[in-house]
Structure prediction request, 384 residues.
Amino acid sequence: MTNLRSGIFLAPFHSLAENPILALERDMELLQHLDALNYHEAWIGEHHSGGFEIVASPEVFIAAAAERTKHIRLGTGVVSLPYHNPFIVADRMVQLDYQTRGRAMLGVGPGSLVHDAKKIGIDPADQRRMMNESLDVIIELLAGKNVTRKTDWFDLRDAQLQLPPYTRPRMEMAVAAARSPAGALAAGRHGLGMLSIGGTSDDALKHHASNWDLYATTAKENGHTPDRKDWRLVTLMHIAETREKARENVKHGLDQFCDYFRDVATFPIVPGEITDRYQYMVDSGTACIGTPDDAIVFIERLLKGSGGFGVIMELAQNWADWAETKRHYELMARYVHPHFQSSREWRTGSYAYARDHHDEFTGQSGAAVQAEIDRLAAKKRAAE
Prediction:
């Protein structure tokens, strides 16, 4: 990819020892920081239990973040569709589309935490079916259609949005795709983007590539043109000036993060028998913990292993303290993103041309100066 866009996936993850007010405020400050660093987008999650991922409404969070930022695009990452009436989801997102002047994006999924679904009486076995039923309706509503449809969990009667989307024909949309093929199939059926979650080891990359093939085939079968620029791949990264410093930085929160995925989340990131989590994550390709150069090599591996995608999405994880976390994003923006966005080549070429012709140009400049000196001297002699 010659213009790989940059983004984050903000669940968020916060230590149980943290003050939640300050944690949420820091998430807002992070988006302001990324906005200033020219990150292209941020996706904010929806979770309702477990204690670590404490944003219950990505729409509310995005509405506030949009007031504090200027450029960064803001997506729901993701709205768990089985938890909501599809008419209300579509209506609220159109309002957000207006409030952000087109910076809002709608990411959807079935819901990732089983205990969230259980708390509202949803059988996890039904979540993917419910997601598809809801998504079908949302697509129709955003197209201005009048929808009457009844399922075992919603009943719509002449449902029609009162406002057309601010973004025409509709805001950008994406479907989360992890281990199940449901996300790839849903995204392909409607011609939406795909948010790939579930690791970046070599085996995970093969799975992501397989999901892309499934997505592309389904999209074509439904009259859509698949485009890898609409594919977002989520991974784990923390960089510093040196590998040693990066490793020291992540001692702040890496273990708590891994404990959460072992104890609460659906799938562990590090197998339970592993004691050196840092080494496992680096060796397995699950994460990049190193320098900007290491990050470039790491992302190039992801591009090659997947076949290419449009956005590199960093999972915001609070492994390091706040100062070093901000420094990580600054280093990414200054030294890693330009490598994948073709923003340095013209400058490099201009510098090289000037350097290679330096003697010639300085000689011409010197000759011009000397000619002017000689002309003035001749004028003085003529006047004497």
